[in-house]
TrEMBL record, chain A:
It is found in: Membrane. This is Ger(X)C family spore germination protein. It comes from the Bacteria. Belongs to the GerABKC lipoprotein family. The lineage of its organism: Bacteria, Bacillati, Bacillota, Bacilli, Bacillales. It comes from Geobacillus thermodenitrificans. PANTHER family: SPORE GERMINATION PROTEIN B3.
Length: 398, 514, 372
């Protein structure tokens, strides 16, 4: 009796499990060979306001497949497809028609907005990227000089794909880097401005095909709300990065007065504090920068063992950094009148109640806001040598 | 509760087995009557020898034994010679017709250490069957069973199923007496108790329950005895029979009884308050109650350095999970969660799967089944052919299948790793349970991805948590007394800190060291 | 009814996932809408309700040892009203369990298994929970003791993995609009904390019941800390856009990337989070089924398990039309609904019980029992 019941129960369980497998097998299961792995997308604006979506899809290739027959060779590792539509989602639908495999967004690394698309507004596209459950909020966002499609079409000589090139470049942090999440965060911040890295095609060396080159980050696009209103060059961008406390990689070159030759230092770490002050009804921003440097090149005849020389060098480095920041301020604050420095947020965080009144007239106040820059540079190490190299001992200045 | 509970409730328990007619009869005074009855019982048995002789030249007697089970030399020297000598001291002066005094005979002439008196024909048969020669004397209503049984047995060897690098090399053998002596030789305390139960309708296997009085809760002993006595089988050939019959949940894939060939493991468990069940004819003794954790521990964990053992335990836990989950995780990631693996790896795997005709689930199933078959073939074959199997397995299945484009190379790796992982579990029974559960997990992974794996794992855990071994929760070592047991489950704390004995049921003598 | 026992530690281990499992899903988003950058403070306010509920539950249990609310409500409010309150509680738990199952289903279908029917996802979970509930409270306790440490370890690892992406700046300005927003933000989590009332159904099975209050409070504290840290981590990563996410914590996990290798770990998180939800549903389910058996004066609850499970599947399907309705309900009416049944009604019962005790005996029976 008891055993019969048990067997019956086991049978029922078996039937249920078989059903689970047969029924359940086909809902979300997707073989790895039925998906098209999207590495990067480009969004361009084309005629009559439509969106052209370009995707770069990885082509799985057998590695070291020499003896396996013809699959190897110089077939491309990625393919490019485009689709157009009123929105991205629309464009995807059209794109899907032209692909045998289902698009898979889980490995998307980068998003490039074409210049035209960026000028019209990127909010709608970002919304799609954040809302889609497969895409990553960590993907890097760029603005392409010209069309985004032309960036993705490139066949880079080293990396596997143009997307990978751009991701590596952004992560190296020489200039701007913004993930989708960070873009949204700054868009939602008090100042409602965004800076996005701008890329263009590196001219290919002679003898190479037009397309065998890479895109690279060369400047920065400035957004007011979600529209691109201009761009700033790399020099200015570094100035902004210094102020925003986002500088990760910097070489500073200075000349010491009365000396011939340059001294270049490498920044080890830097920290920037933005302190708003409200004095006698007037707002003022104080930017304090402390940064540590190593000397990596000494073209002067100064001996770096001497404390006095180091101090002189530090002063000159400070001046150079200040110059950069000042020129960034001149261009963005005075000319373009956009608060990309995070001053608004600094005030909001420090004086939340006053900010509420100030916010309404911030656009008027900002261009005339006095900004005080205090920079402290510490040279920590002179590199591997104290005296300048290749200089006779008697000419070295202590 | 009742859902998983399996009892022997349905099985009626009857006391003894039915016996051949006449065995209950008491021995008659007339020896010939007795002899006839026994000869009748043992008709057509050429290996049963009836040796008639005369004690002191006048009283007739007979020695009954089974050829090959008794020590002939001792029988000649210590039984036949002294009894058949005419002028033995005790007979001096006595008249030939005088009643022979059995007691004096026993005390003065039989130079045999172990002698039991037998009263019934049945007893006679039992002793004869066990190898003890039985001496029947005319005019006596009782016979003597002489403890001279001796037969060929295997020498004590190193246990094959549980080999260690460091630790005793002795293993149990098929002889119950030898096995008991192996225990006794190490536990010299009289607190080691051994209770005997006889099993089997025909075979009459002797089974012994060993326990440490004062450490083992009595409830275990009585419960085990009760369960053993309920067994009604024609024969018990291996302790596996007993294991299956006294388990709490026979339908569970998990073994609830530990079997071991090693005396040191048996003793360690005795000292931790468990009972050991030994069976004549099997080198494997059973240990109850056990927790899941003791099934994935090796005796060597305690012989090697604590730190190393702790690391090895963690390694084992990791590989335990791998052996259960790796193929299913592979399926789940490859068909549901492709975003989980780094892009380059994904591309590599995708490339290797590009020409495979099967879906990942089918591919994995094929390879896992093939692997199981290879393993089974390797175990059953003689050693010489075993090598051929591994060559076929490695070359033909492994390399050729990939080159023929039937399976992908990553899949081969997954299967190989799973196989190795399942071999890291020291107990074969526990390893095979996990290997079996791997298959439903693969189906679940194929239908719901990682979610399916989790649900499957939860079901397994629920099942394990509701299992009991001899009434003790199977996951006991972890719960309910966490602090104590975490020392010996999560790590292997050095002996000098491992003071508390695992608290199985009662709070008594809980310190190992004083 | 079964007389299987758990320890008070196991009770805490059951309470912990019974509250946190779903509290880290929709709740941070709802909290952020009200409290903005002060959202980290809200769990602390909310935990006050937790302490209150634990206190009420333990007091009631001391007055009526070995009894669940289903039974002592009869003792307190008389056979008719008592049974009525019992029925109310049962319907409430029926509804809440169904909502939890729905939350789980919505989450899985919305994030991972897009094309799988939600009924199948929920049904599979209810089946697993039903098997666990049938196995009894001791098995649940043992499972919790094994699984909860794993869940906590996982949460800790996630918080550590988030470290490279945090920005402390996101916390400021603190208390921009005073403390009120953070208290408003506590409205939803407090209803989760009121679920501590589940203790009342577990306490009769606890061996060391005199430790019940201590471990109940430890459960509240640990839940509060968990929510505090997850809210903080979310805030540090997402700052001003936290409120825009439906499941902020999962979005944070999604953002994790360590050395380009350890990324996209949210599926692992989901898988282990399923463990928490399993325990949560099981505890609620257990309370519901045993409560029903007691209410009907049955000697066993096991035969009810699967039939109730079927009803739960159906009700979870009806409990909301869509995710928006579900979130709206939990963010508004739900907050008061949950804490009304689980905190206010027991409080009312406790007051009546004390008043009746005082009226019945001139001796202070209550304080006598409290001294134990």
């Amino acid at each position: 009796m008891a055993i019969g019941k048990k067997v019956r129960r086991a049978l029922v369980f078996l039937l249920v499990s078989i059903n689970v497998v047969i029924l359940g097998g086909c809902w979300d299961r997707e073989e790895i060979n039925d998906i098209a792995i999207v590495l990067g997308i480009g969004i361009d604006r084309v005629k009559n306001g439509n969106i052209r979506l370009t995707v770069e899809i990885a082509v799985p290739r057998v590695i070291g497949s020499g003896q396996m027959g013809g699959t190897g060779g110089d077939k491309e590792e990625t393919i490019i497809r485009s689709g157009t539509g009123v929105t991205i989602a629309d464009a995807i639908a059209q794109l899907q028609e032209r692909l045998p495999r289902r698009l898979f967004w889980g490995h998307m690394k980068i998003v490039i907005f074409g210049e035209q698309a960026a000028k019209v507004g990127i909010r709608e596209h970002l919304d799609f990227l954040i809302r889609h459950p497969q895409t990553r909020t960590r993907c890097n966002v760029f603005v392409g000089k010209g069309s985004a499609k032309s960036m993705l079409e490139l066949i880079p000589p080293i990396e596997q794909s143009a997307s990978e090139v751009l991701r590596e470049m952004a992560e190296s942090r020489t200039l701007m880097r913004k993930t989708a999440k960070e873009t949204l965060q700054t868009l939602n911040s008090e100042a409602e401005t965004v800076l996005l890295p701008m890329v263009k095609v590196l001219p290919p060396p002679k003898g190479k095909k037009e397309i065998e080159t890479i895109p690279f980050i060369y400047s920065t696009a400035v957004f007011k709300k979600d529209r691109m209103i201009g761009q700033i060059d790399d020099y200015i961008t570094r100035g902004v990065l210094w102020i925003r406390d986002e500088i990760k990689l910097a070489h500073v070159t200075a000349r010491v007065p009365g000396e011939r030759g340059n001294i270049t230092s490498r920044m080890i770490r830097a920290h920037t504090d933005i302190t708003p002050k409200h004095e006698k009804g007037r707002w003022k921003i104080i930017v304090n920068v402390t940064s540590e440097h190593d000397i990596i090149l000494n073209g002067t005849k100064l001996d770096l063992l001497s404390e006095r020389n180091i101090q002189r060098i530090e002063t000159e480095l400070e001046k150079d950094i200040k110059r950069r920041m000042r020129s960034a301020l001149d261009q963005l604050q005075k000319d373009m009148k956009v608060d990309v420095f995070g001053f608004a947020d600094a005030i909001h965080k420090k004086y939340p109640s006053r900010w509420r009144h100030l916010k309404k007239r911030w656009n008027d106040v900002f261009p005339d806001l006095p900004v005080e820059l205090n920079i402290t540079v510490k040279v920590r190490r002179p590199g591997m040598n104290f005296p300048p190299q290749g200089v006779p001992e008697q000419e070295v200045k202590e | 509760m009742r859902f998983f509970q399996r009892g022997k409730k349905g099985r009626p328990s009857q006391p003894a087995v039915t016996k051949p007619s006449g065995t209950q009869d008491a021995l008659a005074v007339n020896m010939n009557d007795n002899l006839q009855k026994i000869q009748n019982i043992y008709r057509d048995c050429i290996d049963v020898i009836f040796r008639s002789f005369k004690i002191g030249g006048h009283t007739s007697a007979v020695l009954i034994y089974i050829n090959g089970l008794a020590n002939m030399e001792e029988m000649n020297e210590n039984v036949l010679r002294p009894l058949m000598e005419k002028n033995s001291d005790s007979r001096q002066g006595a008249s030939p017709t005088e009643q022979l005094n059995a007691t004096s005979l026993l005390e003065q002439q039989l130079t045999v250490a172990k002698v039991n008196k037998v009263q019934t024909i049945g007893e006679c048969v039992q002793y004869i069957a066990a190898g003890s020669p039985v001496l029947l004397i005319d005019g006596q209503s009782e016979g003597f069973a002489l403890g001279l049984s001796e037969w060929e047995k295997r020498p004590i060897e190193e246990p094959i199923a549980e080999s260690v690098i460091r630790g005793p090399r002795e293993g149990f053998i098929e002889s119950l007496e030898t096995n008991l002596s192996l225990l006794r030789r190490r536990i010299r305390s009289p607190l080691l108790k051994t209770k005997s139960v006889t099993l089997g309708k025909y075979i009459k296997t002797q089974v012994v329950i060993c326990y440490m009085e004062g450490i083992t809760p009595e409830a275990f002993v009585t419960e085990a005895e009760k369960r053993l006595q309920r067994i009604e089988l024609d024969g018990v050939l291996e302790s596996g029979y007993i294991e299956e019959l006294i388990e709490d949940h026979p339908y569970s894939p998990f073994p609830q009884v530990l079997n071991t060939e090693r005396p040191d493991v048996a003793i360690a468990n005795l000292l931790e308050g468990r009972i050991v069940i030994m069976q004549d004819g099997s080198p494997f003794v059973l240990v109850m109650p056990v927790s899941f954790y003791s099934l994935i521990q090796s005796s060597e964990d305690y012989y090697q350095r604590a730190l190393i053992s702790a690391l090895i335990r963690w390694l084992r836990y990791l590989f335990l999970l791998i052996s259960l989950l790796l193929p299913s995780a592979y399926i789940a990631i490859l068909t549901f969660h492709q975003e989980m693996i780094p892009t380059t790896l994904l591309l590599t795997v995708a490339a290797s799967r590009e020409r495979i005709p099967f879906p990942a689930l089918v591919e994995a199933l094929i390879m896992e089944v093939v692997f199981e078959a290879l393993r089974e073939a390797g175990v059953r074959l003689p050693k010489q052919t075993g090598a051929a199997v591994s060559i076929v397995g490695a070359l033909v299945i492994g390399q050729a299948a990939v080159q023929a484009g039937l399976v992908s190379a990553p899949m081969i790796m997954i299967v190989a790793l799973t196989g190795i992982a399942s071999f890291t579990i020291p107990r074969f029974t526990a390893g095979i349970a996990l290997r079996m559960l791997r298959f439903p997990m693969m189906f679940l992974a194929g239908s719901l991805g990682l979610l399916g794996i989790m649900l499957g794992l939860l079901l397994i855990l629920i099942h394990m948590a509701s299992l009991r071994s001899l009434g003790v929760p199977y996951l006991n070592a972890h719960v309910p007394n966490m602090e104590h047991q975490a020392k010996d489950v999560l790590t292997r704390t050095p002996w000098w800190k491992l003071n508390a004995r695992p608290r199985i049921n009662e709070r008594r003598r809980n310190n190992r060291q004083s | 009814m079964e007389n299987e026992k758990i320890t008070s530690v196991q009770m805490m281990m059951l309470l912990y996932p019974a509250i946190t499992a779903t509290a880290i899903l929709l709740v941070p988003g709802v909290t952020a809408q009200h409290a903005q950058q002060d959202m980290w403070l809200s769990p602390i306010w909310a935990s006050l309700i937790g302490f209150l509920t634990v206190h009420i539950t333990v007091q009631l249990y001391r007055l009526y040892p070995k009894k669940t609310p289903i039974e002592y409500s009869v003792d307190i409010a008389g056979p008719f009203f008592g049974k009525f309150i019992g029925l109310l509680l049962l319907f409430f738990y029926f509804h809440v369990t169904a909502i939890i199952i729905r939350e789980y289903g919505e989450f899985v279908v919305g994030n991972f298994l897009f094309r799988t029917p939600i009924d199948f996802v929920m049904g599979a979970m209810v089946f697993v929970c039903a098997v666990a509930v049938r196995s009894g409270i001791a098995v649940l306790g043992r499972l919790a003791q094994i699984l909860v440490p794993v869940v906590i370890l996982l949460l800790t690892i996630i918080v550590i993995l988030v470290f490279p992406d945090i920005e402390l700046e996101n916390m400021f300005p603190m208390f921009e609009n005073g403390l009120l927003p953070s208290i408003m933000g506590a409205a939803t989590p407090q209803s989760w904390f009121s679920e501590c009332f589940l203790m009342a159904f577990l306490l009769p099975h606890v061996i060391d019941e005199n430790h019940g209050r201590r471990w109940g409070n430890i459960a509240v504290v640990s839940i509060m800390l968990t929510l505090f840290f997850t809210n903080l981590a979310t805030l540090f990563v997402f700052g001003n856009i936290t409120a825009s996410f439906v499941y902020p914590v999962i979005s944070v996990v999604r953002y994790i990337s360590i050395a380009d290798f350890l990324e996209h770990v949210e599926v692992v998180v989901m898988a282990l989070w399923v463990v928490g939800v399993f325990l949560k549903i099981s505890v609620f389910y257990y309370a519901l089924v045993t409560g029903l058996a007691r209410w009907l004066n049955l000697s066993q609850y096991e035969p009810l398990v699967f039939s109730v499970g079927l009803l739960l599947c159906l009700l979870s399907n009806w409990s909301a039309n869509d995710l928006v309705e579900l979130t709206h309900f939990l963010g508004t009416t739900g907050s008061f609904y949950l804490s009304f049944v689980q905190t206010v009604i027991p409080l009312f019962l406790l007051l009546v019980a004390k008043w009746r005790n005082r009226a019945a005996s001139p001796q202070p029976a209550v304080s006598h029992q409290e001294r134990k």
